[in-house]
Protein 1
Amino acid sequence: MDLVTTFLIAIGLAMDAFAVSVFRLAFHFGLFQGGMTFIGWLAGSTISRFISTFDHWIALGLLAFVGVRMIISGIKPDDDGEECSTSDPSRGGTLVLLSVATSIDALAVGLSYALIDGNIWFPVVMIGVVTLILSALGVLLGEKLGCRFGKRMEIIGGLILVGIGIRIVVSHLS
């Protein structure tokens, strides 16, 4: 066989490995975001009756805390001074630790849902599926776009969370 044919066969054979690696990363991130939201809701639903008179302020505080942290993280440069990381986060314990670290904010969001007595199943599934899709797109779009827009997306996500917290307080007070 010639070089081009062999190369095309190699690409065809590698596509399933590529699909599995994209799915593995996206699946873990989606699962942990949805799961942490549920765990936060579960924790919050057990204490909500004790704090119902000021729960909207707690929700604002939690969402603002997470949102401001995301904004600060999006503004400050990485520890190594480089704009982009070249490590492979899609392996073993690193993947699990990264999944937990990126979903801690979902814990606070889940707690907020409990405090406003919201239905949890739709948000858990929605958060998990959206995270899975966006993570898969992130992997597919590659490092170049991540380096270019990653920090800005973190800032926008933080602003959205702060906005949701403000909306909860405003709707509760009016």
Protein 2
Amino acid sequence: MSGAAHPAAFAASLLAAACATVGQPRGVVDRLYVFEVGECHAQDVSRWTGTAEASRPWVFANHCYLIRHRHGLLLWETGFADEIAAMPDGLALGDSIRVRVRRPLIDQLRDIGIAPGDITHLALSHFHIDHAGNSRLFAGATLLVQAAEHAAAFGPTPEKFGYDANGYAALRGGNHVLLHGDQDVFGDGSCVLLATPGHTPGHQSLLVRLAGRRPLLLSGDVVHMQSNWQQRRTPISNFDRAMTVRSMARVQALLQEHGATLVIQHDGDSNRQLPKAPAWLD
């Protein structure tokens, strides 16, 4: 198990990162773990793709990612709530969506010797329940969040943005670092949060650099599936669809600039290329 960074050390890393940009890479992370934390079975994918694919079923993959760095442990996403794993028929979301969780995230972390309190940094692409469902377990970590997302999630009307504030209520009063754009988390270019708004007001993605392979760009929900990426389609429920398309264009430019591989987090095929915990990438 990697040693957890002291809060003061993390504050120093943020200060160093303030002058860094995504275009100035200098380091790599030690390891990246990928956790399978459930599936979302939709009977009709058209709300994500448009009427051209009406009535077609789709299974959305759900993953969390743990980055091990010499200055701490960053958890990217927390997935659906672990409690769903105990529901024999999964969790119904309306009449046409059912969520299933095979194995709780906390058990998978335990497999690699990590307890929730070891997580020093927490970052979510956004606060929908499939990304923030287990966030209460990591209330002691420093939350890195875009200011616009924070205002939406912790403001007076989170339901307006599709959020269930009860699901992440434990994060209130914690150590929150509000971002206004890209953030080099550890100050060495190895792990950079990217502002990619549109799906939600302050959506973000993550660029991770590893020693043994091309950088990975973890999409969050800037795009949900390969066909949407190829055709620049956006879900009808996105906060700002035009903003989403601009963010997709930005992601494309960053992929080319850094020779990175796009990991579409909700696309099962995109994630099959990555070994799952307890294996890791380095």
Protein 3
Amino acid sequence: MARVFVITGPSGVGKGTLIKHLLERVPELELSVSATTRGPRPGEEHGVHYHFLDPAEFDRRVANGAFVEHAEYSGRHYGTLREELDRRTAAGHPVVLEIEVQGARQVRTAMPEAVQIFIVPPSTDTLRQRLVGRGTDDEQQVASRLEVAVSELAAQDEFAYKVVNAELDAAVDELVDIVRREMVLA
């Protein structure tokens, strides 16, 4: 089985940007496509960025054990479909999961061999600026995400690795080093 890398951290910390650069620099990695009940953002495509499911379908799949992990985050559901992960790892492809802290904990229980990496913002003020700057959430949603982020940041010591995303190139270099080192150990 190939290695599974869990990259987590609060919303707005830059997980997606870091993973984009990681995939460019470590092309043998594949990104697992998560399922969600939230609607697509501009430019997002079903099956490429997320599997967009309505809440009833998501709940049906949870009941059928179709997820390796699933979580509710800011009123929306997210999860990693077991078939998506199994297909890739069985074919020998190392996989990156971009998931929230609740889901990362579930993966840790289900797959203790998965490499867990927590992305940390340089400050909560920076995190707030990034969330507002995305322009995808209203002020109430930003406040909700920041409230969740505070509790998630308190959990960072649970994770094997922490990468502070203060300066993009340095954070990408650190992430690439961790992934390459762990791929050799697999």
